[in-house]
From TrEMBL, chain A:
Residues 7-395 form the FAD-dependent oxidoreductase 2 FAD-binding domain. InterPro entries: FAD-dep_OxRdtase_2_FAD-bd, FAD/NAD-bd_sf, FRD_SDH_FAD_BS, Fum_R/Succ_DH_flav-like_C_sf, Fum_Rdtase/Succ_DH_flav-like_C, SdhA/FrdA/AprA, Succ_DH/fumarate_Rdtase_cat_sf, Succ_Dhase_FrdA_Gneg. This is Fumarate reductase flavoprotein subunit. The gene is frdA. GO terms for molecular function: electron transfer activity; flavin adenine dinucleotide binding; succinate dehydrogenase (quinone) activity. It is a peripheral membrane protein. The keyword Glycoprotein does not apply. Its EC number is 1.3.5.1. The keyword Flavoprotein applies. Residues 453-578 form the Fumarate reductase/succinate dehydrogenase flavoprotein-like C-terminal domain. The active site is at R286.
UniProtKB/TrEMBL annotation, chain B:
Residues 149-220 form the 4Fe-4S ferredoxin-type domain. SUPFAM superfamilies: 2Fe-2S ferredoxin-like (SSF54292), alpha-helical ferredoxin (SSF46548). Its cofactor is [3Fe-4S] cluster; [2Fe-2S] cluster; [4Fe-4S] cluster. Keywords: 2Fe-2S, 3Fe-4S, 4Fe-4S, Iron, Iron-sulfur, Metal-binding, Oxidoreductase, Tricarboxylic acid cycle. GO terms for molecular function: 2 iron, 2 sulfur cluster binding; 3 iron, 4 sulfur cluster binding; 4 iron, 4 sulfur cluster binding; electron transfer activity; metal ion binding; succinate dehydrogenase (quinone) activity. InterPro entries: 2Fe-2S_ferredoxin-like_sf (IPR036010), 4Fe4S_Fe-S-bd (IPR017896), 4Fe4S_Fe_S_CS (IPR017900), Beta-grasp_dom_sf (IPR012675), Helical_ferredxn (IPR009051), SDH/FRD_Iron-Sulfur (IPR050573), Succ_DH/fum_Rdtase_Fe-S (IPR004489), Succ_DH/fum_Rdtase_N (IPR025192). This is succinate dehydrogenase. Signal peptide: none annotated. Residues 8-111 form the Succinate dehydogenase/fumarate reductase N-terminal domain. GO terms for biological process: respiratory electron transport chain; tricarboxylic acid cycle. The keyword Iron applies.
């Protein structure tokens, strides 16, 4: 097997991976960097982010406000030391993006403009119309080209980490165009492989978001943290699951039930006002908005459609000019996909799986417990998102912690630690054998697409917006069954060149691991907090559960769950307050 | 429900086993609202695991699923079945690119071209974070904003007659990207880009057929960008004769 060496190996070239690569290159141009991605960098799902990235920049704002919004938004499951440095570093990161050419939307003065976002007390979300992630991704990708030490391996599918005696020394990856496996040896490894929304059937996440990196780290012994916290975004298009950004509501959009009533006022978020008020009504946090939909549905006040029940997003009063200037993609997507031009028509929407708050356990330096292994972006859990991420915090997170991972990995790589090459060769050979086994199997009793449907349906039924012991247990049982049956699948495509049957099978392998950590962590957390709502344990229980769930890999069965204390520095756990009592200002 | 069966005629080519590309037809039961990508995904999941194509976001923004649909380069996620009333749709890999496998084309040439135009801000002097943001008015932003919208789907290369004839041509998307940076008020890198942009294979190679702009799914108008760039170079050439000019 061909061996490729680099000082720092980065798995994933989305926003987080690219930011990491630039940070390594800037920390020390002499360090060689291998940047691996299963898709060309600009295809990474960061491109889909629409609304914006939060960072304190305006004189009416301050870091404390951003800190408190994030901590209470996360229902106090956030680590406050992490949030502190996050809110402090993000404005600088966003300015760097500005210097690198990101086409931020502007005020007439020429300063960057900000827009309101859910759960934020002050308008602080930087945006580039409604294609913020797209512009950030392309800006980072294009900027990365200027650093000669960044060597890209586009369309390389990473399979396994190479670990020995508590440290990580590389990975195996398949060059997709030839099907050849390569051994990548590095002195530090950073995983930036993104989220895992595809473990659910109805999601805003693209095809690439299958949790591969989470599964790799987990199998290598790194715990996955707070996996039960899955964010439902309140406004997805029925059928496709395409997102209509929270900025729709930031700009003043309403959510209406079947009677044309702004139902959020019935869920502690009111009173209704004609123009948006920060932290109230449609600018409440995502967990509470998605939960309100669930209650409306139970009350029979949603609208049935072929693609499931919906409510309506009303943007008509914003007018064509504002919609075209601020939300052009939203207009295009709604018109094309559900035949509803928001300028004149109500747009049907329903909650949709959007974001994993949990992920690979790291400290504030983006380091995992495995020496030499770092993680950043959506695949990681630092944690700044706690039990519920605030919209527009994750684009910032991938910059701040991507940069930290890059600096940390650069520093670590200089130690120059390596493992005996025979040992790495043996590990790589095991990894290759694991892949070859898929090719060798001839008799299949199960098919990957069928198992995927079974798995994702179980997740929706058992780990949805509201959960209870029985539904979660049912999901856990199905996952165990799917895992068993997965042993009986065989590749139908035995070729080498760009074999997507193989990659979808490897992705399924990862999805099973990740889904199992979500379900088992959800089962064990017998309280309700943020995005994890238990019908059989309706209260938040700080006594027992002001703790991070840590799911540890167990080769013989379901993950072992233990707990880690939350870091609390200055904000004592309290009630989350939205609506009139939050005293938010007008965002008109 | 509102189902309809379409005949999807897909160009297949697996270099390890096929002498040459051939068409394979799938009869796909489709929902009315579907796009061509949904039909391909149905084939992949239910009918034929060996079909390969690229896709990810399913929302017109990642640029993965550019392909020829009934002879025109389109995003498969933006090609709605209702716009193909005959119920027969032919899907092929993007023209003007080598086929890697089935609908997957080799992108190396484009990626090299994109890198060659120095697509990043080249400032007069590095600005520090402490200095804050560059001021850029909405009008200054507008001067280049349209050219930032390219998703690299390569539909434009698939229709470009110049690129079809001579692949040394830098081509629409890469030239539009160079123009995007040249027009950005934060950038002073135009001269550095000129050895690629203003070379024989650069803007002067474009014959201004404008097909690229017609097929662009994001309305980037690369032909317009190239025209503007040519015009700017024309002005440079003329002013070089004025007193104080470079000549
Ligand atoms: C529709 C949508 C809208 C959003 N809007 C916002 C917003 O407005 N504001 C906000 O803050 N956040 C938003 N988010 C969230 C945010 O966009 C993501 O959390 C963030 O972009 C993730 O970035 P990432 O770099 O971690 O992962 P990604 O961009 O998903 O990149 C992952 C990378 O890992 C690579 N990879 C994965 N597996 C492998 C493997 N096995 N081998 C090799 N490479 C691999 C992929 O190829 C890819 O390059 C949105 C998310 C979605 C889905």
């Amino acid at each position: 097997m061909q061996v490729i060496e680099a000082d720092v190996i980065i798995v994933g070239a989305g926003g987080a991976g690219l930011r990491t690569a630039i940070a390594v290159a800037e920390a020390d141009p002499k360090l060689s960097i291998a940047l691996l991605s299963k898709v060309y960098p600009m295809r990474s799902h960061t491109c889909a982010a629409e609304g914006g990235a939060a960072g304190v920049i305006k004189s009416n704002d301050n870091l404390e406000y951003h800190f408190h919004d994030t901590v209470s938004g996360g229902d106090w499951l956030t680590d406050q030391d992490a949030v502190d440095l996050f809110v402090n570093e993000i404005p600088k990161e966003l300015l760097r993006m500005e210097h690198w050419g990101c086409p931020w939307s502007r005020e007439t003065s020429g300063n960057v403009a900000v827009r309101p976002f859910g759960g934020m007390k002050i308008m602080r979300t930087w945006f580039a119309a409604d294609k913020t992630g797209f512009h950030m991704l392309h800006t980072l990708f294009q900027t990365s080209i200027k650093y000669p030490s960044v060597k890209r391996f586009d369309e390389y599918y990473t399979v396994d980490l190479l670990t020995d005696d508590g440290a990580c020394y590389g990975c195996t990856a398949i060059e997709m165009r030839t099907g050849q496996m390569r051994q990548f040896r590095g002195k530090a490894i950073v995983i930036c492989s993104g989220g895992a929304g595809k473990i659910f059937p109805f999601t805003t996440n693209g095809a690439v978001k299958t949790g591969d990196g989470m599964a790799m780290a987990y199998r290598a012994g790194v715990p996955l943290k707070d996996m039960e916290f899955v964010q439902y975004h309140p406004t997805g298009l029925p059928g496709s699951g395409i997102l209509l950004t929270e900025a729709c509501r930031g700009e003043g959009g309403y959510l209406l039930n079947k009677d044309g009533y702004r139902y959020l006022q019935d869920y502690g978020l009111g009173p209704e006002t004609p123009t948006p008020v920060l932290k109230a009504m449609e600018l409440g946090p995502r967990d509470q908005l998605s939960q309100a939909f669930w209650h409306e549905q139970k009350k029979g006040r949603t609208i049935p459609t072929k693609w499931g029940d919906v409510v309506h997003l009303d943007l008509r009063h914003l007018g064509e000019k504002k919609i075209d200037e601020r939300l052009p993609l939203i207009r295009e997507l709604s018109a094309k996909y559900v035949d509803s031009d928001p300028v004149t028509t109500l747009v049907p929407v329903r909650p949709v799986v959007h974001y994993m708050m949990g992920g690979i356990h790291t400290d504030i330096h983006a380091a995992t417990p495995l020496n030499g292994l770092y993680a950043a972006g959506e695949c990681a859990c630092v944690s700044i998102n706690g039990a519920n991420r605030l919209g527009s915090n994750s684009l910032g997170e991938l910059l701040v912690f991507g940069a930290r991972a890059g600096r940390g990995a650069a520093e670590y790589a200089k130690k120059g630690l390596t493992a005996p090459s025979e040992r790495l060769d043996a590990l790589a050979a095991d990894s290759e054998a694991r892949v070859k086994a898929w090719f060798q199997r001839t008799q299949a009793t199960d098919r990957v697409p069928d198992l995927k449907k079974r798995l994702t349906t179980a997740m929706e039924d058992g780990c949805g917006i509201y959960r209870d012991e029985a539904t979660i247990k049912a999901a856990c049982d199905i996952i165990v069954d799917v895992r068993e049956r997965f042993k009986n699948v065989a590749l139908e495509d035995k070729s080498s060149v760009y074999n997507t049957d193989l990659y979808q099978t490897l992705e399924m392998d990862a999805m099973i691991e990740v889904a199992q950590t979500v379900a088992v962590s959800a089962l064990e957390r017998r309280e309700s907090r943020g995005a994890h709502q238990r019908l059989d344990h309706v209260k938040r229980d700080d006594e027992a559960f002001l703790k991070h769930s840590m799911a540890h890999y167990n080769p013989n069965g379901e993950p072992r769950i233990d707990y880690l204390d939350v870091v609390i520095t200055k904000s004592k756990p309290a009630e989350r307050v939205y609506g009139a009592r939050a005293g938010g200002q007008s965002a008109a | 429900m509102s189902e309809r069966t379409i005949e999807l005629e897909v160009l297949r080519y697996r270099p390890e086993q096929d002498q040459e590309p051939f068409f394979q037809t799938y009869k796909v039961p489709c929902e009315e609202e579907w796009v061509v990508l949904d039909a391909l995904n149905y084939v992949k999941e239910e009918m034929d695991r060996t079909l390969s194509y690229r896709w990810s976001c399913h929302m017109f923004v990642c640029g993965s699923c550019g392909m020829m649909i009934d002879g025109e380069p389109k995003l498969a996620c933006k090609a709605f079945l209702k716009d193909y009333p005959t119920g027969k749709i032919r899907v092929e890999p993007l023209s003007n690119f080598p086929i890697e496998r089935d609908l997957v084309v080799v992108l190396d040439d484009f990626v090299e071209k994109l890198e060659s135009v120095k697509p990043y801000i080249i400032p007069k002097e590095e600005r520090t974070v402490e200095q804050g943001e560059y001021l850029q008015t909405p009008a200054q932003l507008k001067a280049f904003k349209q050219y930032t919208l390219c998703i690299n789907c390569l539909c434009c290369y698939a229709v470009c007659p110049q690129y079809g004839l001579d692949e040394s041509f830098v081509g629409p998307a890469a030239l539009a990207l160079a123009h995007r940076y040249n027009m950005d008020s934060r950038d002073l890198g135009r001269a550095a880009r000129d050895d690629v942009v203003a070379a024989a294979e650069g803007i002067w190679h474009c014959s201004f057929v404008g097909a690229c702009s017609q097929v662009c799914p994001k309305d980037v108008d690369p032909a317009g960008a190239i025209q503007q760039a040519k015009f700017a170079h024309g002005i440079d050439y003329l002013t070089s004769f004025l007193p104080g000019g470079k000549r």
